[in-house]
Please model this.
Amino acid sequence: MNAIVDPRAATGDDILLRVRGLKKYFSIRGGIFNRVVANVRAINDVSFSIKRGEVVGLVGESGSGKTTVGRTVLRLLEPTEGEINFAGTDITRLSASEMRAFRKRMQIVFQDPYASLNPREKVRTVLGHALAVHKIGRPEEREDRIVALLEQVGLSGDYLDRFPHEFSGGQRQRIGIARALAVEPEFIVADEPVSALDVSIQAQVVNLLEDLKAHYNLTMLFIAHDLAVVEHISDRVIVMYLGRIMEVAPTRNLYRVPNHPYTKALLSAVPDPDKRARPDRIILKGDIPSPINPPSGCVFRTRCSLAIADCARVVPSLNEISPGHFSACIRTAPTPGDVAVPSLIQEHL
Model:
């Protein structure tokens, strides 16, 4: 018997980040009085949890809300609604000064290494800011710490007085990673950290993140659209579409036996050198709908070849189809004769 899952039921001391009913709407204003005329529903009722020391991949097409989730859980964007519980504290209730203390524990590696570094600041200044703001170490000790950080990410201490334009893209991203690690965080959001890099450099950066994760026992939300990279680094994967979660599963399960039609379409597009093992390519029709006016019911139904009439009326819940594997599709929901049993999913969501 399958069980309807309530992601809000996640409990357990091993959970570092728990997100419940998260929504993020961006207002569109217009008219003579500049009133709100519509909302862009970037995130719409998203719930998940991440265990300490776990790497969770977050994937989906452009416009699915991945980056917005990453920035909202860090409160770089203020949530419209919902709870973000980090290490037992709902950070949505913290003031700006209280939140500043949590910045040390929650960091981000940005997507674009060219735009995320101040072109007028030398490396020693870029990394020194974080140490100074959080009052880490005495001023005379900080240069040694900066050199150690650079060496940890595979760069030389001789680079301290160079500007960002003097580095390659991969080197800049390593500096961005060093900046995130400078304050010894517990949790990192890696927002498509390799998408702007050459393919030859991507593997180096991903391997670096894996090594640092093991060294520091980091917890990580790894956002990407490259499913091959996500498979390599993630323990579990969350699949998003138009602001909602479509599927969640341990990485091995998701890639071997995907359940949701959207996940199957994404995986079918991943290049495979062994053509005999490649599944038939699933071509999604049309573009992702506008988040200003998303489809009723299942938001994926307008592009799903398996959609039925009920898909327009029912918003599917995440349903446990096998241990640790959840899918938001009414075709996998319990039959009317089944009893929906709330699940404590601390090990999964």
Notes: Residues 1-11, 335-349 have pLDDT under 50 and may be disordered. The longest helix spans residues 199-216. Residues 39 and 254 are 33 Å apart (CA to CA).
